[in-house]
Amino acid sequence: MCRWLAYSGTPLLLDTILYKPAHSLIDQSLHSKLGVETTNGDGFGVGWYSPEHTDTPALLRDVGPAWNNRNLRELADHVSSPLFFAHIRASTGTAVQQTNCHPFRHGRWMWMHNGAIADFHRMRRDLVLLIDPLVFSDIEGTTDSEVMFYLAVTFGLEKDPPGAVARMVGLVERVGREHGVQFPLQMTVAVTDGERVWAFRYSSQGASRSLFYSSRVDTLRKLHPDMAFLRDVSDETRLIVSEPLGDLPGAWNEVPESCYGVVQPGADAMHTFTPEPM
Amino acid sequence: MCRWLAYSGTPLLLDTILYKPAHSLIDQSLHSKLGVETTNGDGFGVGWYSPEHTDTPALLRDVGPAWNNRNLRELADHVSSPLFFAHIRASTGTAVQQTNCHPFRHGRWMWMHNGAIADFHRMRRDLVLLIDPLVFSDIEGTTDSEVMFYLAVTFGLEKDPPGAVARMVGLVERVGREHGVQFPLQMTVAVTDGERVWAFRYSSQGASRSLFYSSRVDTLRKLHPDMAFLRDVSDETRLIVSEPLGDLPGAWNEVPESCYGVVQPGADAMHTFTPEPM
Amino acid sequence: MCRWLAYSGTPLLLDTILYKPAHSLIDQSLHSKLGVETTNGDGFGVGWYSPEHTDTPALLRDVGPAWNNRNLRELADHVSSPLFFAHIRASTGTAVQQTNCHPFRHGRWMWMHNGAIADFHRMRRDLVLLIDPLVFSDIEGTTDSEVMFYLAVTFGLEKDPPGAVARMVGLVERVGREHGVQFPLQMTVAVTDGERVWAFRYSSQGASRSLFYSSRVDTLRKLHPDMAFLRDVSDETRLIVSEPLGDLPGAWNEVPESCYGVVQPGADAMHTFTPEPM
Amino acid sequence: MCRWLAYSGTPLLLDTILYKPAHSLIDQSLHSKLGVETTNGDGFGVGWYSPEHTDTPALLRDVGPAWNNRNLRELADHVSSPLFFAHIRASTGTAVQQTNCHPFRHGRWMWMHNGAIADFHRMRRDLVLLIDPLVFSDIEGTTDSEVMFYLAVTFGLEKDPPGAVARMVGLVERVGREHGVQFPLQMTVAVTDGERVWAFRYSSQGASRSLFYSSRVDTLRKLHPDMAFLRDVSDETRLIVSEPLGDLPGAWNEVPESCYGVVQPGADAMHTFTPEPM
């Protein structure tokens, strides 16, 4: 399993979010509290959009742990972004290699995942065969997460993200059950096109991995008028995280089971998530 | 493209073959003379059988260049083996990662390859679909070479190596031509079960990458009675290499176009290789 | 801080000691119970003597975590040794690089360390200046552990290991106190020449990191007559470990504070350790 | 030996300079024409100043070859900078590790080097002892290049770069000659504080490695009125390179033997370089 975070809002130095908080993602790489594993040291990735070059996000991914990676530390100290993903990996068996590190990218889209397809080893062939042949050869790694991404691409991610994810999940559940797997999927997923972020929390069993979103900044400012940090970011600023980055009262809200949130210009939204039978 | 060597014979410290020769494989990683690229620095691998643990070969593979790898240097200085493969990689585009480094292993079998499937990116899906579903999920990397290996496994490598390779080649050529590729395959391949080594030289175009085998040791001893090295190895000892390791007169013989050799207990053999239409 | 083990006895596949035990060193890399950190993921190293090539030990060291390293897994499955060291690192700030991974080697000697020189950053220059100029340029990394090793070499490690270590400790304590450091040194150290192993437990504060040695195999056999493993190893076989590899009653004994043990042909020995003022 | 380039001028995407030119630095990592080695695959580094965070430059350094590094490719595609250094390394024996990759950094200063101190292994101790104790512990690697940098820092680099470098060279030559080395130093060096770039070409033997600077952009525009690229960059834009990035007539000028250039706001300058006896 893994831990991840998605940031959208006022452009910030990555350091502000990745390293500074008390229970930052880097801290979680060593001491996750809510994850299946306490250690998430099997590679990491950061993907960010830069104001000048918005056609595709940039990726920094490497196979060692995030906590001791100097290039990540350098980037975090020198790069600002209005929208970025970060992910730390705990492999459930597949190889520790750059192409298995999240986020995955397709054009200007990014995808990251915490969870697993149960018995993926047995289902892998059936699932990859259902990926659009036009994108099949873009698969570079061997994770369930990347297969889920390309299935979602196959099912229209670029036009209708919630629908495409619902169809991907419906398919994985069908194929899983054909293989006799009772609860085929466990996932929290974030996906973005650089403008909006969709974050899904779902599992076949109805007992999904944790997922939280930050409260509205204007609300937080009233609760904590002394926190300088909150004065520097816009009301629109939002974080979605596998586990809270600290203990600030009122700051974190759980994404409900079988739901997805949309972070977007204007009011954000929360919806029920239902897999689409395929 | 890549460079490789296969050794079979008197157990030797790997160093004797990997580093000591004037134009050793390590030297070829920087200065290949006959390869498509002069530099082969996109990862390497060594696979060896040890006398005590013969059920599977051991693999050391890494993503950096062979020439500066300290773990390879350490192994070469301390490990002896009667049968080993070594490979240095020049990527033709696929990711530089451990799971794309040769040799590949399946049970007690090892496989390594120099060459390429032309337009592999376009053919990849069609080819992997033809791999036996029982071994499909053992594919860990993204190279044409590994797909060729699992196709050969699918077609009976463990029972009939030359036949399985002939069928694999026949298949690749058919699929390639269906995709409009005139010359789908270029290969020199070595495969072993720990007892025998089969080495193939073939290309659809009839213009295959170079491949050489060493002369019989007893013949070489007569030619070079002063070479101490030759007194220490058995008559059975044999090397197969992408390019000669030095200039010793009489030492190296080209494997003819569209042929394969078998290094085995008793007399070695050379046969014509013909793809089997699939 | 770190975790380590030293094995001496009947030649065994490294896997038997490194991976098989319930709380193996590999398990400790993720879940150390007695260490300062629970995670030891900042590189690892194994050094082993092979029966055929006994002039120097072989080293495999790498910068990623031990728990996901495939080359370590391969070696452990295929290499046997009568005497080996293994070490997993948790960096206290110095770079995560191969030359900072233990064990360190000088000729046929190996050294590994758990602990730290307090305020090493400030003392580093004064300490390295006291290293014998003839070995100064052999320093390749930036750890306190390596400096301790070369100081011990400087003070006669190859002739009198306990005396050399006592002088090294005396020196570090003097230099530390000159810099106003109350408790300059914390260490468990193992050192070997391939024949004997010396293991030291000491700290300036008298509160040293844990260190254990295994009971005599003949004693253990009487306690656990049903354990097949114990029938396969000689009476001489001995393990020294940062923390026990399991819960076998009667198997593990703490090395007393300020003591060192010697594992050697014939009866092993335990002595008091006293730094030598320098 | 190595290859490097320094860029100063109109903020550009790193890709424009690192990858796009016909004989780019990335191409030089495989096929250097003027270097001692054709292959420069023992690590690389890029250091850049970003407009927003100008207190220190950011560094991306890694141990593999530049030509296959995906993180470098990503950065080059997404990061712009008005002043950056890039370096590809061919180790002359010291370890291939991140802390041995150039550029080196001290506060807001960066340093990179091509060349070598002859017999550095023997002189290393004498030289490091002459480094200011206050910066001694900042040394993280084992290269001659980093020792040269900290000697220059010791001798006043931050106040008088040419003077500090002249004293560093004078010192290295004296210590070298004390060790019986006839020609102790070979160097092209670039150093910057983020505002100005100093580039030195010198060797004890008077036969220095190649070094070139680009012609004034306004001159080039007149020579090549059809080159769109030249219309996008300011007159002030300047490149200094180990070897030309292409064959554009009139574009490249050799830095004369024993000289240094200064790239700065206003007119750039070229001066004679003379070591200062120490």
- The CATH architecture of chain A is 4-Layer Sandwich
Uncertain stretches of 5 or more adjacent residues of chain A? none
Largest interface: A-D, 20 and 20 residues
Structural class of chain A: alpha+beta
Main β-sheet, spatial strand arrangement of chain A: 3-2-4-1-10-9-11
Helical content band of chain A: 25-40%
The number of strands of chain A is 13
| Gyration radius from CA atoms of chain A, angstroms | 18 Å
Task: Give a quick account of the main beta sheet of chain A: strands, pairing sense, barrel closure.
Answer: 7 strands, antiparallel
CATH class descriptor of chain A: Alpha Beta
Kindly identify the CATH topology of chain A. Glutamine Phosphoribosylpyrophosphate, subunit 1, domain 1
**Shape of chain A, please?**
globular
Give the distance, in angstroms, between the N- and C-terminal Cα atoms of chain A: 26 Å
Strand residues, percent of chain A: 25-35%
Assembly context of the chains? homotetramer
Alpha plus pi helix count of chain A: 9
- Listing every helix as H and every strand as E from the N terminus to the C terminus, the arrangement of chain A reads EHHEEHEEEHHHHEEEHHEEEE
Give the integer mean of the pLDDT values of chain A. Answer: 94
Question: So, the CATH homologous superfamily of chain A?
Answer: Aminohydrolase, N-terminal nucleophile (Ntn) domain
Count of distinct structural domains of chain A: 1
